[in-house]
Specification:
By secondary structure, the chain is mainly α. Helices cover about 80% and strands about 0% of the residues.
């Protein structure tokens, strides 16, 4: 139970850092999500099982999400001056879901 609590604390601290950084400018909040906080949490959780193949699978799955993240950012950028920022985020999230779905499920259908 303690390991779940500290992982939540790490995620909360990164969120706090992003919010605090947004008060100082616009670039740093965009860079902070590149810190592999959630990847580290996932790797720690899977690595604790002692399964090297599972550990490597998490690495590969994380690498596969990079194009979907870029789709998210591109959609948010494009929608940013066309819609309210909240709708732009929702639209970008929808684009991310489509991209992630294609990345992970399309190979199964082929």
């Amino acid at each position: 139970m303690i390991d779940v609590l500290w992982k939540g604390l790490v995620g909360g601290l990164v969120t706090m850092a992003i919010v605090l950084a947004s008060r100082r400018g616009n670039v740093l909040p965009g860079i902070l999500p590149l810190a592999p906080t959630f990847a580290i949490i996932a790797l720690l959780a899977v690595g604790a099982k002692g399964d090297a193949a599972g550990f490597r699978a998490v690495c590969l799955a994380g690498a596969k999400t990079i194009p979907a993240y870029l789709v998210f950012l591109a959609a948010a950028w494009w929608l940013g001056d066309r819609l309210d920022y909240r709708l732009a985020i929702l639209g970008a999230l929808a684009a991310w879901l489509v991209a992630a779905g294609l990345i992970f499920w399309l190979p199964r259908w082929l």
